Structures are given as structure tokens and as C-alpha cells.
């Protein structure tokens, strides 16, 4: 939940003169996204999202994110479409922050998406990977495999506070992932953070993919690993193979996965689990105990990581090669 | 900014079966209000606000607040109308919290409202005071004059941290207010927190009065004191007599003020300044320095308080008796 920058009504009025969006009916900060300030803007023409980019976002990355959203939305995907100002530009400034306005997407997100939603997600993810091929801009994955050892080293001295012997166990599992990390798999632009709270539905129909601010270039099937982890584990920590199969088959139908990609799923998913485990561990250690926003428990992802390192093949994900 | 209770999509779906509001298009926590969790709910029929009442609100006060909003909205005022569930009830429960759904009001609030907006506010405030006369329920002002000395005593030992000699100055000014507090003035239901962020406008037309959760029974003209303080001082601390006159005259046109009420304005406004000074001082002292939400500077209200105790009569507010 986040509104870091307050936008004055006078500042808003002056700012909106740069656009042709109609008369403002309402304007409210919304509690979505943790990196930026987001406002829901209603005019007599439509609903929009105004995003102000806060300090954690590197301004030099913004043209990449905006190109990606524009590429996907104009290809017909349900993604926020950056709205052009009267001068044709998309990136603006407000209250000293870079900002942009986007089309608003209907829909709500589901904490535990069902099988139909997992299928829709698979289709959308593959479509996104295909449509993003025309991207001119590119962005390295700042939280990819190369970042994991330095990230772990920075918190190593405190890792045992979450469990006896954890420091050694994390190092061993990290080493195993890095040793087995696949090469030669198809790469391209991935979302890299497509958790259920970033996907909107009306009923079981997917109506929105949002929050592209971790998007980057990496192994395409790694995005599937991220989605398997965040969509197919139940509240009790169990893995739902039916949902996994639905997601993978729907993906494969749009962008056929090679055998090499299928076989790499356990290590890609384990790598994704390691990435979220490590960033959560970092936040866990660095968040003051009396902070208003509670850090997420890293151990959820530790258990997911162990699952992927325990499976013997793709059958565990509902796929028979 | 506040969303304290997270509402699950499944919980929402089940909850909304109690209502006939149409199909959900979107649902987002909004960063308004500091006491409760507020969600903007869009359906294919209309926009609504879902409010979950958090711990700081006494559940026994809720019927009073809901009756007030219903009374004003059905009288044609631009106030949130509590929406009835299928069974005819208004107060419901969700995620273990009392809650209610309200009609959504268009408009945005103005940080520094102009003279026309002050006039609109005066008209709306007087109308509210008249329309609320039919209220069956009543509520004592928990932050009225009787509460100020105990509130001050609870922070007295730390009051000098905001300025040398402040402890004695606060006590002297508080004593002066209490000694001169008027009796016999018309009483009724007041809003008690009608700051600019609780009043919505489209252009200069008032479209919404919101956040009735400090409403209570007290001296009606005390509500004017609260509004003079929060609407008529400029960013540099100066008092704008033109705005004050516009507000008071507009009020007087709808509910004529007696000479006694006019004459009591300086002390009522000073009392209001003391009330907000003391609660801000309390928050200032009790908020951890690393908290995400910064407490408001109490000294803004100290300067307002000094203004009202320095004036010699109603002419300072633009009124010639």
C-alpha cells in the first residue's frame, strides 16, 4: 500500500492541462504497489491511473517499461496503455517526480486463483513473451542469477536468525541452482513479477496484467517458474499439480515449449524461489520491528524452493514428456 | 492514508452476495481516512465506498454515524448514503470488522479552498445543522472542552520539548478559553472535523461532505470555528478575512446566527484551535520517529490559537454587528 507523494489539487489541475482527458470527477490515492505512488483519476471521459515514480525506481529504466506496456496494449493485450500528453510525450513530471498516466483496467485479483485462472495466465504470459519480441529497448535482470550470491552475502551474517544452520543450507541450495542453471534457452522480455496481485480478472476472464516495473530480459521459461511459485501453491504450502498443468499447457499452446525448456522448469522455479526468498530475507532483516508495513515471511519461499529441488522431473508439474 | 484490513477476493464475493449491487468491475483500497480501511468498489451499476471500521472507532457509535449520513443524504445533501443489504440492514461485518457500503461521491478536495468554496462550505454547514435536527440518536463530544485539560495533563511533562516555556503558556491559554466558554448557545449535531480534505468539489461547486466519524452533539457555532481554522488561514499562516466573511455570511443566510453566536466566534475558534493543537501535540509526542506516517506539526494550530485570542471582536472575521 503506498502513496508517497501527495498531489495538491492545484498541482493536479495545472498538470492535467498538458492532457486532453476531460473534466476531473474524482482523484484518490490507491493502496496498490509498493514502489510507486498510484492515483485513480476519474474524468467525464474515462478512468485512468496516474503513477508517480518514487526513489526506488531508476528513471533511466522508465522508457523501457513504458515501451513494453505500449507494445503489449497496442497489440491488443489487457495491459495499461500509457496515455500521451497533448505534445505526444508519455513521461511527464509532477511534484518533482517522473510520472505517467495509464488507461485503467477493470478487474480484481484473486488471492488463490483457480485452475481456469491459471490457464488464462498461461495463455497471457506466452502471448506477452511473443508480442514483446518487437521491443527496441532492453533491460538486464538486476535480480537475476548473478545477483543472488551478492544479495545472500549481504545478509549472510544474520541468516541464522531465521533458523539454526540456515546460512549453510542457503549456500548449498544456491550453489546447486547456479551449477545447474540452464544455458541456450530462448530469452526475451519477461514480466518477472507476475504474482496474482498483478493479474486482474472479471469472473475467470483475465482482464489485466499490471505492474511491469520488474520487467527485464531473461530466460522466457523463468517467468513460468515465477508464476508456478506464486499461483500453484495452496495456503497450506501444498503444490497443486492440476493448476500447474493447466498453466503450462495453456502457455505451450501459444508459445510451444521445447523439451529443454520443460526439463529446465524445476531449476528455473527453484531459482525463482531463491530470488524471492533472498529479497524477502533481506527485507525481513532490514525492516524495523515497529514498521507499519510488515515484511513478507521469507520461509514461505524456502518451502517452495525445497519442493522444486526435491522433484525428479516434469511429471511433478503435470507434464509428461 | 490507510488500508488496515485486507479483503480477500473470495471474502468479498461472498460478502457482496448480501447486496444487490451488480457485478464487480474493480476493487481497490484507497489512501483516504486515517481511522478506517476504505475501498473503492466499482460495479456495472455504480461506484461505492466500502468502509471497514478499525479499532479506533467505537462500534457503539456506528449507528449514530450511519443515521446521520442517511438523514443528510435522504434530505438531498451531498453526503455518502449508506447502502442497504438485501435484508434491509446497513451495518455488516467483513474480515472480523464492522463495515458498511456507501454511495460514492464525485469531486476532489482543495488544499487551499478559494472564497467561492468557503461560501459553498458555509451554506452546506448551516444546511447540515438544520437537517440533522431530526436525528434520534445523539453522541457526546469526546474531544470537547471537558476533554482538553485531561488531554493536556497527559502530555504536560513533555510539552516543553516543542518550545521553552510552552507548558505554562498552554495552561494559561487553555484556562482563558475554559473561563470564557459560552453557555446557552444553540446546540445540535456538528461534523466536528470538516477540514478541506473532507469536502469535495467539482469546479467551485460543492459535491460532497464526507468522513462523519467525529460527528457529535455540541454548540453549532463551534463547527464554524473548526472550519474557520482549517479553511481561512493561508499557507503562510495569515488569516484571510475575505474567505471568513464569505463562509460566515453564507452560513448566516441559511441558519441565521444570533449576536451571541457571532460574539462567541473568537473563543469558539480558539477552543477549536486548542483541540487540534492538543491532539496533534499528543500524536507528535507519541509517534515513533521512524514511523511511515508523519504526525502533523502542532505549532500550526498554536499560531491559529494565538490569532483568535488576540482579536478584539467579530470585525476581525469580516462581520460588523
Provide structural commentary.
- 2 copies of one chain form a homodimer.
- Chain A has about 325 residues and is of the alpha+beta class.
- Chain A folds into 2 domains: about 10-105, 2-Layer Sandwich (Phosphorylase Kinase, domain 1); about 115-315, Aminoglycoside 3'-phosphotransferase, Chain: A, domain 2.
- Chain A is built from 9 helices and 9 strands.
- The first copy, chain A, has helices at about 10-15, 60-75, 115-130, 145-155, 165-180, 220-230, 240-255, 260-285, 300-310; strands at about 25-30, 35-45, 45-50, 90-95, 95-105, 185-190, 200, 205-210, 215-220.
- In chain A, the strands form 3 sheets. A 5-stranded antiparallel beta sheet of chain A has the order 1-2-3-5-4, covered by helices on one side. Chain A has a two-stranded antiparallel ribbon with strand order 6-9.
- In chain A, strand 7 (about 200) and strand 8 form a beta hairpin.
- The longest helix of chain A is centred in the C-terminal third of the chain and has 28 residues, at about 260-285.
- The radius of gyration of chain A is 20 Å and the shape is globular.
- Chain A starts with 8 loop residues before the first helix and ends in an 11-residue tail after the last helix.
Amino acid at each position: 500500500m503506498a502513496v508517497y507523494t501527495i498531489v495538491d489539487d492545484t498541482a493536479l489541475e495545472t498538470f492535467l492541462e498538458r492532457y486532453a482527458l476531460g473534466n476531473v470527477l474524482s482523484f484518490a490515492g490507491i493502496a496498490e504497489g509498493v514502489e510507486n505512488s498510484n492515483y485513480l483519476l476519474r474524468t467525464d471521459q474515462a478512468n485512468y491511473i496516474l503513477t508517480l515514480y518514487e526513489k526506488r525506481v531508476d528513471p533511466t529504466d522508465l522508457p523501457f517499461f513504458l515501451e513494453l506496456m505500449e507494445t503489449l496494449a497496442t497489440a491488443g493485450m489487457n495491459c495499461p496503455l500509457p496515455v500521451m500528453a497533448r505534445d505526444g510525450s508519455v513521461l511527464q513530471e509532477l511534484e518533482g517526480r517522473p510520472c505517467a498516466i495509464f488507461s485503467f483496467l477493470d478487474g480484481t485479483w484473486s488471492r488463490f486463483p483457480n485452475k481456469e485462472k491459471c490457464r488464462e495466465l498461461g495463455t497471457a504470459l506466452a502471448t506477452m513473451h511473443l508480442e514483446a519480441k518487437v521491443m527496441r529497448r532492453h533491460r538486464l535482470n538486476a535480480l537475476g542469477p548473478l545477483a543472488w550470491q551478492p544479495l545472500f552475502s549481504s545478509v549472510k551474517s544474520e541468516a541464522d536468525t531465521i533458523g539454526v544452520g540456515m546460512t549453510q543450507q542457503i549456500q548449498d541450495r544456491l550453489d546447486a541452482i547456479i551449477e545447474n542453471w540452464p544455458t541456450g534457452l530462448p530469452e526475451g522480455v519477461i514480466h518477472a513479477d507476475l504474482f496474482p496481485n498483478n493479474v486482474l480478472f472479471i469472473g475467470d476472464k483475465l482482464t489485466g496484467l499490471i505492474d511491469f516495473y520488474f520487467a527485464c530480459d531473461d530466460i522466457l521459461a523463468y517467468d513460468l517458474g515465477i508464476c508456478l511459485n506464486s499461483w500453484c501453491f495452496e495456503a497450506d504450502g501444498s503444490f497443486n499439480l492440476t493448476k500447474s498443468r493447466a498453466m503450462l499447457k495453456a502457455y505451450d499452446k501459444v508459445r510451444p515449449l521445447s523439451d529443454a525448456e520443460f526439463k529446465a522448469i524445476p531449476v528455473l522455479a527453484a531459482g525463482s524461489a531463491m530470488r524471492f526468498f533472498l529479497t524477502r530475507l533481506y527485507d525481513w532483516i532490514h525492516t524495523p520491528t515497529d514498521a507499519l508495513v510488515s515484511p513478507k515471511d521469507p520461509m514461505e519461499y524456502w518451502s517452495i524452493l525445497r519442493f522444486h529441488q526435491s522433484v525428479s522431473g516434469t511429471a511433478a508439474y503435470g507434464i509428461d514428456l
